[in-house]
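Summary for the steering committee. One of the milestones for this cycle was to obtain a three-dimensional model of the protein with pyridoxal-5'-phosphate bound, which we needed before selecting residues for the alanine scan. The sequence and ligand used are listed below.
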Amino acid sequence: MTHIATRLAAVKPSASMAASMAAKALRAKGFDVIDLGLGEPDFPTPPHVAEAAHKAALAGETLYTAAAGTPALRAAVAEKFRRENGLDYSADEIVVANGAKQIIFNALMATLNDGDEAILPAPYFVSYPEMVKLLGGVPVLPVCGAETGFRLTPEALEAAITPRTKWLFLNTPGNPSGAVYSEAEMKALGAVLARHPQVLVLSDEIYEHILFDGRTFVSFAKACPELRDRTLIVNGVAKAYAMTGWRVGYAAGPAPLLKAMTTVQSQSVTSVAAPMQAAALAALTGPQDCIATFREAFERRRDLVVAGVAAIPGLTLSPPEGAFYAYIGCEGLIGKITPEGKVLGSDADVVDYLLNHAHVGAVPGAAYGVSPFFRISTATSDAVLTEAIARITRAVAALQGGR
Ligand SMILES: Cc1ncc(COP(=O)(O)O)c(C=O)c1O
């Protein structure tokens, strides 16, 4: 096909989507597959949120809105930052887009010149490097392994910065590792950034409410107020309110950046659909009890998976501190031989084996930049997770030889 733009050549489709497609294909052949590939809360969206969209549509909220979002929703987002994060942003420092992903896309589109670098600590959310490449930038991927709790250290940050660095991405709690940066760790990174004024910070806080072991959330902008003018806080309703399919994300940041992002938005999707904005408004301003209910369920499932994996020889898992994934080390399986006679040479081989032998779908660590690991989502019922762990246990026990 000769019609595809050259900038697409280096861009991969979403690995978690691909893993999920492979699981679906196997299921279509009649197998009972447990798909732990995609990360979506398995809870229904709270009914009052769905009703708000319905009412808005019936009341005529069916027109284009301001590109940056309805005034009511932007005011509610500003209020959320005040209430939950102790941050003061005015309405022109808030934008709304079709999910956190579109916020990130708009921010990169608005700022990257060809060859500009974005530091994306690995393991990273799969879409970050692909979006950077799509928009002409160069991903810089410092590996932050289990030894540093999957966190970027100030030394690794300093070493990754060049005169071409435009962005540092931080994601806390992190997908796929579940790592959470403490306030002190963020301040230490902030001290490095203070020496490099060309670097903007994108803090992806979409898992803010999914925190374990009594942790409290600190936004990067709160930890490093001196960097406010170059920090973009990215968040959304998808994970906090079980609203992945509603596609509403939001951001707070410096007005000139947001103005440029709004131009990108107005010349592409125009705005988020009006009833979806009404739903997000209801989520942010209505009863908040679902947040605690979801958090408790995710912590219980985290415990279930940590205990299950601890009993499987060859697998390792340091307890995730937040989010709803387990990033499981599988070095101990590399070199082992499957009952079909195949040597497991990589985490992609392990994932392939788990899918085809145990009928459990996962995503290889290679997709997140740190191997050999695989990610499972814990956003499914306790019963399904228990069955998945039992299947993985049996599949690992069936391996022969190796180290
Ligand atoms: C770190 C991170 N950021 C952003 C997103 C996407 O958020 P949204 O659904 O609001 O686009 C995800 C979804 O998996 C994620 O893991």
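Key point for the committee: The chain has two domains: 6-44+290-397, 63-286.
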